[in-house]
């Protein structure tokens, strides 16, 4: 599902966890607030209405907050490139998260 300013639960939880790891608590709290208050309704016939892993959320962050998150994932991508300069699966994963956040409009 690709919709402007909408992200899935997995992306938000990963973002929250990485922000906590680096001590960016205020922005982590903003992500937590989105998880608590911005869940989009699921279709009437959705078979997993109570499963957060199938949920999507409206993202309402400032341009600066989004840039901080993008930079976080870009730094994680770079730090997980192999010694030989080859992309690892973890570097690729973090690069994908950076791309996802790059597509969010503030």
Termini gap: 19 Å
Number of helices: 4
Mean pLDDT: 90
| Gyration radius over CA | 15 Å
**What structural class should be given to the helix and strand makeup?**
mainly alpha
Shape: globular
- In what order do the strands lie side by side in the largest sheet? 1-2
The poorly predicted ranges are: none
The portion of residues assigned to helices is: 40-55%
Work out the number of β strands. Answer: 2
Report strand %. Answer: 5-15%
Please trace the helix and strand order, writing H or E for each element: EHHEHH
Q: What profile does the largest beta sheet have?
A: 2 strands, antiparallel
Top keywords for this entry?
single chain, 106 residues, mainly alpha, two-stranded antiparallel sheet, 2 strands, 54% helix
Descriptive notes:
This protein is mainly α and about 110 residues long. About 55% of the residues lie in helices and about 5% in strands. It has helices spanning about 10-20, 25-35, 65-80, 90-100; strands at about 5-10, 55-60. The protein has a two-stranded antiparallel sheet with strand order 1-2. The longest helix has 17 residues, at about 65-80. The radius of gyration is 15 Å and the shape is globular.
